[in-house]
Amino acid sequence: MTGWRRMRCQARSWQTARREWKADLARWKAEHERFKAAARAARKRGETPAVSDPGPPPTGFALLPWLLMGMGAFANLLQGRTPNPLIGGLGLFAFNSLYIYVTFRSFDRAKREEPRTRVALLLMGLLTTGLALGYGGNWLMFFPLLGLAAGAALRGPWLGRSGILLAVYAAALSGAHGGWSDATNIGYATFLSTMVTAAILGLAEAVRELRAAREELARRAVEKERLRFSRDLHDLLGHTLSVIVVKSEAARRLAPRDMDAALGQITDIESVGRQALTEIREAVTGYREGSLATELDRARSALTAAGVEPVVRRSGTPLAPQPEALLGWVVREAVTNVIRHSDAGRCEIAVTGAAERVRLTVTDDGSGTPVSRPAPGIGGTGLTGLTERLAAAGGSLTAGPAPRGGFTVTAELPLPAGEPAAAGVTAPDPS
Fold it and tell me: For residues 73 and 89, is the Cβ–Cβ distance under 8 A?
C-alpha cells in the first residue's frame, strides 16, 4: 500500500508539472502572437523589429529526453543480466522519479532554492552511488544524469566546486568498479553535463530577465514622459487660464466707464491665448524652453490685472537655459497661486544669483493660508510637480507661511559647471 501511495503521489506531481507546463506554453503563445503583431507593424512602417521572438519558456520537459541515457540499464533488466532485478527495477524507478522531481523544480527559482530540492538531489546522489557500486557497467551512466540534475538545481557560487567534486567522485567510483578508461569517460561526462547544463539554463534565465527588465524600463519611461507631459499641461494651462479669468474680470469692470482700457485687457487676453496655444504645441513636441524674463513680465501683467502690486527684483548675470526654464515654472506656479488663493495686495519676486547657486523667492502679504496641494502620493501638479522638477536638477523648493505674515515660496538651484559668477546686485526694479 505504501508503494502504491508513492506511485499515486508521483503521478499527481507529474500532472501538476504538466499543468504548469501547459500554462507556461499558453503564456508563451500569447507573447509570441504579440511579438509577431509588433514585428508586422514595424515591417509595414519600413523599420526593423526592435524585439525578437523570445521563444518558448524552458521547462523540465527540456531535460526529459536525457533519461534515454539510462536505456542501457533498462535493457539489462529486460534481458535478465542484472542480479536482483526487483531491486534494480525499483532503483531505476526511484532514480527517474527523483530526476523528474528535481529538474522540474529547477526551472522555478523559489522551488529550486527550497531545502526539499536539495534533499532530493542528495537522495539521487546516494541512489546513484548504490546502483553504480552494485551493478556497474551501463548503470554508471546515471552519474552524467546526476550531473544534469545538479547543474539545473545548483546555480551560483558553489556550482564550480560542486561540479568538480561530483566529477571526481564519479570517476573514483567508476575506477574502483571498472577500469580507468571508464573512470575518465564517466568523470568527464559528469563534469561536462553539470557545467554545460548550468551554463545554458543560466544564460536562458538571464536573457529572459534582461528582456523583462528592458520592458519594465520602457514602461517606466512611458510613465515618466506621461507625468512630464501632464505636469507641463497643468503648469501651462493653470497659469494661462488664471490670467485669462483675471483679465476678463478686469475688462468687465472697466467696460462701463473706460472702454479703451477694457479693450486693452481684451487685447491682452487674445495675446495670452495665442501664446498659450504656441506653448502647448511646443510642450506636446517636447521642445519648450521657458524664459525667466518672459515669465516675470507675465507675472507683472497678471498681478496688476488682479489688483496685486508687483515688486520684481533681480540680481546677477543671465542664467543658463535650464535654470531659466525651471525658475520660470516656479514663477508661473507661485504667481498663479497668489492670484487664486492668497487675497494679497502686494507680491514680491526676488531672483538672487550667487557664485554657485541661484535663489528665487515669491512672497505675498495675503492671509498666509497654504496653497492647495495635491493629495499625498499624487504627483505632477502644483508645488509637488515643481518640487520633483527642482529635485531632479539638484535643487530644492520650500513653501509655507512667512514669518511676518503672508506666504513664501523659495526655490534654489545649483548653477551648471562653467556658469559665470554673479555680478553685483542691480538696482531694484519695482513695478
Answer: no
What span, in angstroms and rounded, lies between the C-alpha atoms of 315 and 274? 31
3-class DSSP assignment, residue 201:
helix
pTM above 0.90, yes or no: no
Q: Please tell me the predicted confidence (pLDDT) of residue 424.
A: 35
Residue 349 φ/ψ, nearest 5 degrees:
-120, 120
d(CA 243, CA 333): 12
Of 72-81, 173-182, 325-334, 399-408, the one with minimum mean pLDDT is 173-182
Quote the cell numbers at residue 27. Answer: 503564456
The cell numbers describing 302, all together, are 497678471
Largest CA distance in the chain: 120
Q: Are 117 and 111 in contact (CB under 8 A)?
A: yes
Per DSSP, the three-state class of 348 is strand
| Position 285 confidence tier, pLDDT thresholds 50, 70, 90 | low
Residue matched to cell numbers 523659495: 410
Assign 426 a pLDDT band (cuts: 50, 70, 90): very low
- 3-state secondary structure (DSSP) of residue 45: coil
Residue 226 CA to residue 230 CA, distance in Å, equals 6
Q: Which residues pair with 238 in a beta bridge?
A: none
| Interior angle at CA 371, CA 369 and CA 372, nearest 5 | 125
295-321 residue pLDDT tens: 888 888 888 888 889 999 888 777 787
Q: Give the whole-number percent of the chain exceeding pLDDT 70.
A: 77
The span from the CA of 298 to the CA of 334, in Å, is 12
Rounded to an integer, what is the distance from CA 104 to the centroid of its chain? 29
Q: What is the CA radius of gyration of the chain?
A: 37
Q: pLDDT confidence of 427, banded at 50, 70, 90?
A: very low
Per-residue cell: 281: 504645441
Q: What is the DSSP string of 115-176?
A: HHHHHHHHHHHHHHHHHHHHH-GGGGGHHHHHHHHHHHH--STTHHHHHHHHHHHHHHHHHH
